[in-house]
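Async update (no meeting this week)

Hi team, since we skipped the sync, here's where things stand on the single-chain job. The sequence we agreed to prioritize is pasted below, unchanged from the tracker. I ran it this morning and attached the output directly underneath so nobody has to dig for it. Comments welcome in thread, and please keep replies under the output.
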Amino acid sequence: MAEIIIDIQNVTKSYNAGAPVLRDVSLAIPKGSFVTIIGPSGCGKTTLLRLINGMADADSGQIRVLGKNLADWDKIQLRRNIGYAIQQGGLFPHLTIKQNIGFVLSISGDDAVSIDKRVNSLAEIMSFDDRQLSSYPAELSGGQQQRAGVARALAANPEIILMDEPFGALDNITQRTLQNELKEMHKKLGITFVMVTHDLKEAFTLGDFVTIMNEGRIVQFNSPEIIREKPVNDWVKEFAIE
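Output:
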């Protein structure tokens, strides 16, 4: 049986005493898997990522990451174990690409030599040359900015990468190129990826497991093949299959 790296049990979350954004959500994510999360706007996808990353707290329920209750984690150490990539890279505009990639390491107190070595290693993986590393985000294309965002998420050698619609603002050709690169990277590195997307094709192409959400609940969690063959209800069939 696969080791569970993220274990979410009966989690509920609301904002400002409003209606719950997440309603009794439970989800067990196997180590080394690529999990995609998809559902209509407002269904709680991004909130779920924020809870996993300790950026927000659940009202009730429990989240365990790497076998440890989220409440017991030192937040800096947690984020060394969890990389986070968002749409358009989320890069700091006043820092070069090299500085952006090494940012998490620099605030964690790593020495300059080790930071430089790690950034250069990631630059090779992401096909950045010296000129691009010295550039500022606005000087690069959208696809290059997104690659830099993924590189920054990988900088601290995390065991988990969270991604919130990272390719949503890109053109179709660039999207497909980066999706293929990401899939190959996952195979090579063996890191656990959890990715929110609004693109059904992306969710079913990249995901070892697909999480389908609606109205703050997980409606179905399974492999793309099983979801296609055995949707749990007519809503999933209509939303994800037809």
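Quick observations from my side:
Residues 60 and 69 are 13 Å apart (CA to CA).
The two ends are 32 Å apart (CA to CA).
Reply here if anything looks off.
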